[in-house]
Each structure stands twice: as structure tokens, then as C-alpha cells.
Task: inverse folding
């Protein structure tokens, strides 16, 4: 009950303030109408200058996105060439400086991970928007001249699982 009494008092107070605001604004509105009409806000929509600026920004954003897409595609091809050659090949001179300093330091495992991700993920990693798991971010890395060979496959030692894979003595074929 106390809550409803407090809310009724608050509503009455807000209504009184609203009425007072309307009464106090009457002289200002009368003077405004006498000396040139009411003040009107700006027209809806943006001015031509703002629209032109927005169009230029959108065009530049599209150009940056297109450029980073081209760099990501070329970098993917560079990764494939490096994997085929079993080591980093020469980095194209037109790559951005950050990528030219980063690419020769990648390991074979990182190159394989970058080749296997989606093109948009590779593009985002190169731009620094988010990282591909297991791959270092784009930063200067010491160059690697050749990737170490992969270790030869070694047959795993027979452990406790081998006991259950073979039949028990006296139960052959059962």
C-alpha cells in the first residue's frame, strides 16, 4: 500500500512539473512566433556533404577489403608453394611489410594450419582482427631457412590395450 501511495505522489509531482514547464515556455514561444516563427529543426536526412563523405568512406572501406582479400589469396598461394618446396620460398616484394617480416618465420605446422582455414579466416588473421588457433600473430619473426623433416613413423609400443586385443589362453576363437 505504501508503494502505491509513493507512486501516486511521484506521478502527481511529475504532472505538476510538466504543467509548469509548459506554462514557462509560453512567453518564449510567443516571442519566437512574433520575430520569425518557431524554431524548426534540421530537415530529416543527412546533408549532401555528409552523404558524399559517407560514400567516399564506404568506397575506401571496399577498396581496403578488396586489397586484403587479394593479399590473403596471394599469401595462400605462397603458403602452398612453401609447403610443396618443404621450406619457405621467397616472399613477394609487394606484400605488406608486416607480412614480409612474418612469413619467413612460420613453421610447417603453422603453414598447414593457415592453408586449411577458410579464406576469410586467413584474411582476418593477416589483418590482425582475430587469430587462427595455433598460429602466431603477424609480427616480425626470425627467418627459417628450411623446415625440419617430419619424424619417421614409429610403431607404438604394445601397452595394456594389447592384453585385451588378443584372446585369452585356452579361449582361441571364442
Result:
Amino acid at each position: 500500500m505504501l508503494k502505491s501511495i509513493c507512486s501516486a505522489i511521484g506521478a502527481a509531482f511529475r504532472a505538476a512539473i510538466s504543467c509548469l514547464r509548459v506554462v514557462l515556455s509560453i512567453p518564449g514561444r510567443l516571442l519566437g512566433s512574433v520575430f520569425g516563427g518557431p524554431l524548426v529543426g534540421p530537415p530529416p536526412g543527412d546533408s549532401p556533404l555528409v552523404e558524399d563523405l559517407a560514400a567516399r568512406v564506404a568506397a575506401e572501406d571496399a577498396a581496403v577489403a578488396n586489397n586484403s582479400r587479394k593479399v590473403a589469396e596471394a599469401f595462400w598461394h605462397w603458403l602452398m608453394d612453401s609447403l610443396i618446396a618443404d621450406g619457405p620460398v621467397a616472399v613477394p616484394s609487394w606484400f605488406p611489410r608486416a607480412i614480409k617480416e612474418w612469413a619467413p618465420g612460420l613453421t610447417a605446422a603453422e603453414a598447414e594450419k593457415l592453408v586449411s582455414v577458410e579464406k576469410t579466416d586467413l584474411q582476418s588473421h593477416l589483418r590482425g582482427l582475430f587469430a587462427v588457433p595455433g598460429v602466431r600473430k603477424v609480427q616480425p619473426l626470425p627467418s627459417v631457412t628450411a623446415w625440419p623433416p617430419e619424424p619417421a613413423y614409429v610403431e607404438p609400443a604394445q601397452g595394456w590395450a594389447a592384453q585385451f586385443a588378443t584372446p585369452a589362453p585356452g579361449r582361441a576363437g571364442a
Remarks:
- Helices lie at 2-34, 48-84, 97-102, 108-116, 119-127, 160-165.
